[in-house]
Amino acid sequence: MSRLSTKHFIGLKDAKQSDIQLIIDTALTFREVLERPIKKIPSLKGKNIVNLFFENSTRTKLSFELAEKRLSADVMNFAASSSSLNKGESLRDTVQNIQAMKIDCAVMRHPVPGSCLKLTEYLDCPIVNAGDGTNEHPTQAMLDITSLYEKFGKIKNLKVSIVGDILHSRVAMSNILGLQKMGAKVLLCAPPHLIPKFMSEFGVRISHDINEALEWSDALNILRIQRERMGIGLVPSVKEYRDLFGVTKERLQRLNKEVVIMHPGPINRGVEVDTYVADSDQSVILNQVLNGVAVRMSILYLLLGVANES
Ligand code: CP
Question: Helix, strand or coil for residue 292?
Answer without folding.
Answer: helix
